């Protein structure tokens, strides 16, 4: 079937399309209605059906693939490696579920998971799914303040954590941060379940804190049946990365998510039972939820859980994992590939990568240089995919297993089945034609797997995302807050976030367009462009670049600045030419690798850089200040 036919069916008759896809998972009780769209923008999928994510990810495979690897937990931080078969994974999940029940966790209760990338984190997520508790995984790199605000939002009965994480060989004690966060929070969890890795001392709070190993022993032979949940009950809460401001608590369902993941694992990721999937993200992000934990397991694949840096002990570590575990599909982010690109290329050639069939990249714009470099080095197709915490699975990409359409450099691809993607002209409210820039919107209802609401705040969900209507159908449209363009072949290009659009003397430009142009200069390694207030023009572009080879003399900088201005002049025109180009050694990014343009812009305009709880390295802000001053 051509992708066009596949896609069109999903749009013309979503109920028939998704009814068919729903056969990919096990249902305990069949659904009576595929889609209930009677209260837009709230969509309900597979109404009346009961199912369970843990059953579909684990139990379902135990009969036929019980001894096959399911979870491969590797840590180059503690030099440990352990493979769990589907049967062993089931045993561990049941033990964890039994502990949770013994601590009073029941259906609909929230469990906050603040953990490093260790097997127990996966057990905890799946255990929640098994008993119908709602997990809220908080990225282990966050400190007390960020954690406290998420504790207050989710109001967990139980928090699952560990003594410590480890990053680049440095122990990061979690327990102290967690205790501080609980002190800061209004809400107090009844219990804290702690995995002791023996990395850092822990002070246990009597009556509240519980040791995981000890309680695992108590429940070693436990039997905990799957709790069958109505498809639209909540499975988890996950906060967006906070790149543009206060994170939003995305709430997802059970049945729609399971079906969406199962379909994407086949249609987009070509996942085959028995294969091995290696996603280098973190369980604290949506990519980790969908494509480390649930997606691969639902597809009957082994999934690699990796704790460590991509360049330790050396930049060959990922490729040694690919060789050893015969990884078939890999998923990462452009930011990680840029890190590898700075390392000696021989390390990649050392390993047998013949099992690997494709590398998927998402999370931020994939620039052409990075994409070409990694594609050449690996000799496999690179598949860019664009989506959000809110969507749970790709919105734009190429569905390789439906039709192997060519990728276009710089474009994540075409709208995926189920997504009625449109571009909206913000000024006129009209839909854009080909080659016309606009805001990327999706006409409701959103397909299965997408967010149901913002946890505990339906109003904020509607007011944040659903403020526009389709001029064609009058239906509410979901805004992605990204800005894009579609070419004559229907391929989309993401031009940046709507926050990042700048207005230079009446011309609207995406900062990403200017960045892409600057990246084509041979000596530019990374770049951030922001719009800065200007009395004459309204706004002007200002660029911060990390050069590949830094010439820190005044003359060297001036030459690079002039060259970059010329590149932009030639490719975009003088409206996009940055008023200044500053050289820095580091750019401010979130812990998930996204550029914090709003903070850079604030500093340029002499304002407060805003909420910095999600920043990776605060010293990057000082570099911006120093560059502006010097
Ligand atoms: P917040 O919504 O809290 O500001 P965030 O948008 O960074 O945070 P995520 O949901 O993790 O949180 O990121 C989704 C965003 O990442 C997209 O809206 C888009 O801006 C960007 N993005 C993701 N994948 C791609 C891609 N392949 N190409 C371009 N941009 C991408
Ligand atoms: Mg966002």
From TrEMBL:
GO biological process, one term: propionate catabolic process, 2-methylcitrate cycle
Residues annotated as domain AMP-binding enzyme C-terminal: 513-594
Pfam families, sorted: ACAS_N (PF16177), AMP-binding (PF00501), AMP-binding_C (PF13193)
Domain (AMP-dependent synthetase/ligase) ranges: 59-445
InterPro entries the UniProt entry points to: ACAS_N (IPR032387), AMP-bd_C (IPR025110), AMP-bd_C_sf (IPR045851), AMP-binding_CS (IPR020845), AMP-dep_synth/lig_dom (IPR000873), ANL_N_sf (IPR042099), Propion_PrpE (IPR012694)
Keywords on record: ATP-binding, Ligase, Nucleotide-binding
Superkingdom, taxonomy of origin: Bacteria
Molecular function in Gene Ontology: ATP binding; propionate-CoA ligase activity
Gene3D superfamilies: 3.30.300.30, N-terminal domain of ligase-like
Residues of the Acetyl-coenzyme A synthetase N-terminal domain: 5-57
Family, similarity comment: Belongs to the ATP-dependent AMP-binding enzyme family.
Name of this protein: Propionate--CoA ligase
Species name: Collimonas arenae
Classification of source organism: Bacteria, Pseudomonadati, Pseudomonadota, Betaproteobacteria, Burkholderiales
């Amino acid at each position: 079937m051509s992708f066009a036919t596949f896609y069109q069916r999903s749009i013309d008759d979503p109920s028939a399309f998704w009814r068919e896809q729903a056969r990919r998972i096990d249902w305990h009780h069949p659904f009576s209605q595929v889609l209930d769209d009677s209260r837009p923008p709230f969509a309900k999928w597979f109404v009346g059906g009961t199912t369970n994510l843990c059953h579909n990810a684990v139990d379902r495979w135990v009969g036929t693939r019980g001894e096959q690897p399911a979870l491969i937990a590797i840590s180059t931080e503690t030099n440990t490696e352990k493979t769990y078969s589907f049967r062993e994974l089931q045993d561990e999940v049941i033990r964890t579920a039994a502990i949770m029940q013994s601590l009073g966790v029941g259906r609909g209760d929230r469990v906050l998971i603040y953990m490093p990338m260790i097997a127990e984190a996966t057990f905890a997520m799946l255990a929640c799914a098994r008993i119908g508790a709602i997990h809220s995984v908080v990225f282990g790199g966050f400190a007390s303040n960020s954690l406290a605000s998420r504790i207050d939002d989710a109001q967990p009965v139980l928090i699952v954590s560990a003594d410590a994480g480890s990053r680049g060989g440095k122990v990061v004690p979690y327990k102290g941060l967690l205790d501080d966060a609980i002190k800061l929070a209004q809400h107090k969890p009844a219990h804290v379940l702690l995995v002791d890795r023996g990395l850092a001392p822990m002070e246990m709070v009597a009556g509240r804190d519980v040791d995981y190993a000890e309680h695992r022993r108590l429940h070693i032979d436990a039997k905990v049946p799957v709790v069958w949940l109505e498809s639209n009950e909540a499975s988890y809460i996950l906060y967006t990365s906070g790149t543009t401001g206060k994170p939003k608590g995305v709430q997802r369902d059970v049945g729609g998510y399971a079906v969406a993941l199962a379909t994407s694992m086949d249609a987009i990721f070509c996942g085959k039972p028995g294969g091995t999937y290696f996603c280098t993200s973190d369980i604290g992000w949506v990519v980790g939820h969908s494509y480390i934990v649930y997606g691969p397991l639902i597809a009957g694949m082994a999934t690699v859980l990796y704790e460590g840096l991509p360049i330790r002990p050396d930049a060959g570590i990922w490729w040694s994992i690919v060789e050893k575990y015969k990884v078939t599909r890999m998923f990462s982010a452009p930011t990680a590939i840029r890190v590898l690109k700075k390392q000696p290329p021989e390390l990649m050639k050392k390993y047998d990568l013949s099992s690997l069939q494709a590398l998927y990249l998402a999370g931020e714009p994939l620039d052409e240089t990075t994409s070409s470099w990694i594609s050449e080095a690996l000799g496999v197709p690179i598949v860019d995919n664009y989506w959000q915490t809110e969507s749970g699975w790709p919105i734009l990409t190429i569905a390789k297993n439906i039709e192997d359409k060519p990728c276009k450099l710089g474009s994540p691809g075409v709208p995926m089945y189920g997504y009625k993607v449109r571009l909206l002209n913000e000024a006129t409210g009209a839909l854009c034609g080909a080659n016309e820039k606009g805001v990327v919107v999706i006409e409701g209802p959103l397909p299965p797997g997408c967010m149901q609401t913002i946890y505990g705040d339906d109003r904020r969900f509607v007011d944040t995302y659903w403020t526009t209507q389709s001029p064609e159908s009058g239906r509410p449209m979901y805004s992605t807050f990204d800005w894009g363009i579609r070419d004559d072949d229907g391929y989309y290009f993401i031009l940046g976030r709507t926050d990042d659009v700048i207005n230079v003397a009446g011309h609207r430009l995406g900062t990403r367009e200017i960045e892409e142009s600057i990246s084509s200069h041979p000596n530019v390694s990374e770049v951030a462009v922001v719009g800065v207030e200007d009395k004459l023009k309204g706004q002007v572009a200002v660029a911060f670049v990390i050069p590949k080879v830094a010439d820190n003399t005044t003359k060297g900088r001036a030459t690079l600045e002039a060259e970059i201005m010329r590149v932009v002049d030639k490719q975009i025109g003088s409206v996009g030419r940055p008023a200044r180009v500053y050289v820095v050694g580091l750019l401010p990014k979130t812990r998930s690798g996204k550029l914090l343009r709003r903070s850079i812009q604030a500093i340029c305009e002499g304002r407060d850089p805003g909420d910095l709880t999600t920043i990776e390295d605060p010293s990057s802000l000082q570099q911006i200040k120093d560059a502006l001053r010097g």
